[in-house]
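Supplementary Data S3. Sequence and structure tokens for construct A.
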Amino acid sequence: MNLLEIKNLSKTFGGLSAVRKVTAHVRRGEILGLIGPNGAGKTTLFNLISGAYLPDSGSIVFEGENVEGMADYQISQRGICRTYQIVKPFNNLTVLENVLVGAFNKTESGKAAKEISLDLLNFVGLYGKRDLVASRLTLAGKKCLELARALATQPKLILLDEVMAGLNPKEQSDAINLILEINRKGISLLVIEHKMKIIMSISKRIIVLHYGEKIAEGSPQEVSRHPEVIEAYLGGKDAVA
């Protein structure tokens, strides 16, 4: 059984079809890439899966349970968590307090929540900054904080929205290693990323959206050779060597 199954999912805003009859699945323990030009519907799909938006039609099944229509906190409690392209830490809270917010999603024990949070801050490399106010972190630090807060909810699936955006090459390399380490813990990831070399290197499968529709799905090699993908997204300067 797949971890997540999406069938004929659609969402329209004022007559514009942001997502149109998309069918896809995420396997247990895999990293699935999601690519497409700006406005292709990628973030809308994330918002539908995470409960921020209600679909107009279609189904979202997570571990055999229909979750479309559930509130976002209910979906999070079932094991789906997401990060954002524009980082959204609680800037007036400390780094540790930010992660505690996520930890309390699964435990009511303050002691247990603190132990979970400190362990995760060590994992993402922010333990030494645990008492720092989150607003003082660098962009890379804030992205690591978002990952730690997501992990604190004890997810089975993380939706990563352009975690590499704004990072320098060294920070990108560190982020890739962190993503792979998260995956080695058995957590599945659905990843939106515009940097083709990165998404091709970490994903076993890739789905391509264009104007809200899925136009291709397959291995990185298959997708990079797909005529519609080349036309819609990978042509010219963005082509994959």
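Construct B, processed identically:
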Amino acid sequence: MEKAILIDLVTSAKEKLEVSESMEELAGLARAAGAAVVERIIQFRPAPTPRFLLGAGKVEELTGIIEELGADLLVFGRDLSPTQQRNLEAALDVKVIDRTQLILDIFAQRAHSSEGKLQVELAQLSYRLPRLVGRGAALSRLGGGIGTRGPGEKKLEVDRRRIQERITRIKAEIRAVEKRRAGQRRSREKSHIPLVALVGYTSVGKSTLFNRLAREKTWTSPQLFATLDPIVRRAAFADGRPYFLSDTVGFIKRLPAALITAFQATLEEVAGADLILLVIDASASDPEAQREAVIRVLQEIEAGDIARIDVYNKIDRLPDRAHLLERNGRPGEDAVYVSAATGEGREALRARIEERAPILKKRG
């Protein structure tokens, strides 16, 4: 297991207020990738430096910390430029990755379907292409592990032309996936059975709620990004009429642009939904920040105007769960409060799905 030091740079008062939560999320991502977090470091400075992102003095200090802790991986909480990454690895003689590369690595580990693997490879190659100059020797010297999974070192050491050709081929294969999904959506529309999509921040319990609503037993995990490949199953409204329920990848703050582009075919399942269930972890330190982050992604994929129900999950972890359950069904109450783990609030959610989807009733 790789020993990772987490590093973040704070340059504003707003970032200072959010750094604790951001660092905790980065630690969760590192653990999900398979690393052991041995240290967390935060530097406060007015602006990043072009050479290292950090100040030169902090980089010098890191040399001793790395040696003392036996760390072999540095994970930065914000994106590094290709030059900054190369400079840091040359100065510290240790592997350096940023938040985007860490997320891509998790996706590479979790993708199981051929479609998921294609999307991850496209995202990784698109991200790494501008970083190839001078990286061949560094990759060889620093070894494999986190940040090098997916396409693999050999593919990354070939020339740009061949990588571009591979990207072109993957895009063509993904377009074929998009056509197939479009055909499946047309078939669903002809059947007059609506599609309800579960979306939310990663690790908020979407898959557990999916199992409750669809009476399924799909695999669930508390780890970040446990679900990558979309799953669609039949479920039923409170009156027994059927609808399709979709579960797909969780969102996250500052979702890498490469992932949004590569997973467009998957995200179109959400954009093509008749109703969205936005699942929020009610026990999180800042549930509304999670909600806002997901809404931003929905707007990016042109799904911001779809009818939506906010579903606050994990109320079993809260002391006022009984009060929250009483709010379900109250006039003027937009949200629904549930516990996917215990099943509390499930029937109220089913009723609200039917109530909030008059267009779906007309279809049925």
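DSSP finds 15 helices and ten strands in the chain. Residues 160-190 form the longest helix (31 residues).
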